[in-house]
Amino acid sequence: EFEESAAEVPSLSRRRDLATGQFALKDGGDEVLLLTPAGQLADAVAYGTGDGAALNLTGTLAASGGDSLQRVDGVPPQADQRHRFAYAPPDPFRSIFLPDPHAVLHPHLADGLIAAWGTLGATSNFSPDGSAPPHYVLAHAAAGGLDFVALADAAPTAPWVTPPGVVHLPAWRWDDGEQTAIIYDGTLRTFADATALANFAAATGLSVQWLDDPPAGATGLTAVDGQAVDVPARLSQLAATWIAAGAPLLPAGNSPPPMPGQVEAAPRFTGLAASALTTEALSAALAARRGWLTNSPGLWLALRTDDAAAGSTWMGGTIPPANTVTLELQYGDITGEPAGLAVWQDGRPIRQLDLPPADGHWTVIVPAVPGTFLYAVATQADGGFAVTAPLYVTPDNRGEVRISRVVPVPGADYNGDGALTADDEFIELINPGSVPVSLTGWQLSDSRGDETPSRRFTFGAGRFLAGGQRLQLFRNETRLNLNNAADSVRLLDPDGNEIDVVRWAEAPAPGVVFEQDPTDGQWRTGVIDQAPPPWTGPPVIQSGTPEEPEDVWEKWAEGQAAGPLGSVAMAKRRGLYIWTEFEGVVIAPPGLFNTAIYVADVAADGTTAGIGVQVYLRNGAYPELAEGDRVHVRGETSSFRGEMEMFLESPEQIWRVESGPPLAPLPVTVAEIGESLEGRFVTFDGVVTGWRGDSIFLGDPDDPEAEPVRVTVRSSLDWRRPYVNEGERFRVTGIVGQFASAAPWNDGYRVLVRYPSDLLDLNAPATN
Question: Which residues of 220-237 are buried (b: 16+ CB within 10 A; e: fewer)?
Answer without folding.
Answer: bbbbbbbbebbbbeebee
